[in-house]
Amino acid sequence: MTTAPIAVAAHGLTKRYDDVDALAGVDLEIRAGAVTGLLGRNGAGKSTLLQLVAGFERPTSGRILVDGEDPFDNAVTMADTQLVREGGDAFASEPVTDTLGWYRDLREHWDADLAAGLADAFELDTSQKVENLSRGQSSMVGAIIGLASRAPLTIFDETYIGMDAPNRETFYEALLTDYAAHPRTIVISSHLISEVERMFEDVVILDAGRVLVHGDADEVRARGLTLTGRATEVERLLGTRDVLARRDLGPTSQITVLTQPGDELPALARQAGLEVDGVGLQDLFVHLTRRTAASPEGESR
Ligand SMILES: Nc1ncnc2c1ncn2[C@@H]1O[C@H](COP(=O)(O)OP(=O)(O)OP(=O)(O)O)[C@@H](O)[C@H]1O
């Protein structure tokens, strides 16, 4: 087992279930030592990708590499990888402590103090049987396993969805603090984009089994721009750009567009007296994935 953060690469990765391509030729590099947000609408292929990374499934075609190795049933990469799924992977009829003890024995870098501290912060009674926990309490068990394992590749697949807002905040703070002290590769799949996006250094958006967007989170955010002002001015500046959303109110238009790095549009728009605003990652995600749903060929990226 390694202590260094681990990179993941996918080349032409395809996973077919019956007649569904859950992943359809994914090419991707997940940076070692960064927090990557994995976003996508329901059924986009996020969990499928993460199960392949964790070595639980085999690709139909193409390759997935974890630290340069095929992770399927691979004891070396699996020892370095902690995937936490919604609902957790815990012994249902046993107390929570039994599951935590199992991970303590399995994970070389397990931090028992961190696990105990998180259970306290969540006010989780670890003597309870897992099957008697509420949905949010089950999520807490997953969050504890994910953080206290300190695996070089740690993956949270909608782990914390059942937790209430204060407990989710506790989890985010703990993740950021522990990640700063013990850097590792972290992948977070989530639908709560506006809540978790501050943790992302990189972002991947999957859409219908394909990579729609991949890049540095700030650069991805900077791709969306909203211009508000006189409709004629807005129209003049737009030219042939991709319009993601449009609202017209009398003589005023508000238009969300995609920009490219180094684009002069924001400066030109300000000079023309238009209001220029960024677009949050969640709004950008909604605009992009709605648009491609309406036009299956999507945009070129
Ligand atoms: N074991 C399976 N058998 C058959 N089809 C599957 C299986 N697992 C996933 N799929 C299909 O593959 C596609 C991708 O599913 P996946 O669970 O990866 O999506 P997701 O992005 O995680 O979705 P969500 O956000 O809803 O959890 C879906 O169409 C799903 O029905």
Order of helices and strands: EEEHEHEHHHEHEHEEHEHEEHEH
- The CATH architecture of the largest domain can be given as 3-Layer(aba) Sandwich
Strand content: 25-35%
**Main beta sheet, described?**
6 strands, mixed
Overall pLDDT score: 91
Helix segment tally = 11
Oligomer: single chain
Helix/strand class: alpha/beta
The first-to-last residue Cα distance is 37 Å
Report Rg.
21 Å
Strands of the widest sheet, in order across it, are: 5-6-7-3-8-9
Query: What's the CATH superfamily of the largest domain, by name?
Result: P-loop containing nucleotide triphosphate hydrolases
Question: Into how many domains do the coordinates divide?
Answer: 2
- The stretches of 5 or more residues where confidence is low (pLDDT under 50) are 293-301
The third-level CATH topology of the largest domain is Rossmann fold
Strand segment tally? 13
CATH structural class of the largest domain: Alpha Beta
General shape: globular
Which percent bin holds the helix content? 25-40%
The kinds of small molecule bound in this structure are: adenosine-5'-triphosphate
Walkthrough of the structure:
The strands form 3 sheets. The chain has a 6-stranded mixed sheet, with helices on both faces. Strands 11-12-10-13 form a 4-stranded antiparallel sheet, sandwiched between helices. The chain has helices spanning 46-53, 75-80, 96-106, 112-121, 135-149, 165-181, 193-196, 217-221, 231-238, 265-271, 281-294; strands spanning 8-17, 20-30, 35-40, 61-66, 81-85, 153-157, 185-189, 202-207, 210-216, 224-230, 243-249, 252-258, 275-278. The protein is built from 11 helices and 13 strands. It starts with 7 loop residues before the first strand and ends in a 7-residue tail after the last helix. The model is unreliable at 293-301 (pLDDT under 50). It is an alpha/beta fold. It has 2 domains: 8-218, Rossmann fold (3-Layer(aba) Sandwich); 222-294, Alpha-Beta Plaits, CATH 3.30.70. Helix 4 runs antiparallel to helix 5. Bound molecules: adenosine-5'-triphosphate. Adenosine-5'-triphosphate is lined by residues 17-18, 20, 22, 40, 42-48. Adenosine-5'-triphosphate binds next to strand 2 and helix 1. Residues 8-233 form the ABC transporter domain. InterPro entries: AAA+_ATPase (IPR003593), ABC_transporter-like_ATP-bd (IPR003439), ABC_Transporter_VariousFunc (IPR051782), P-loop_NTPase (IPR027417).
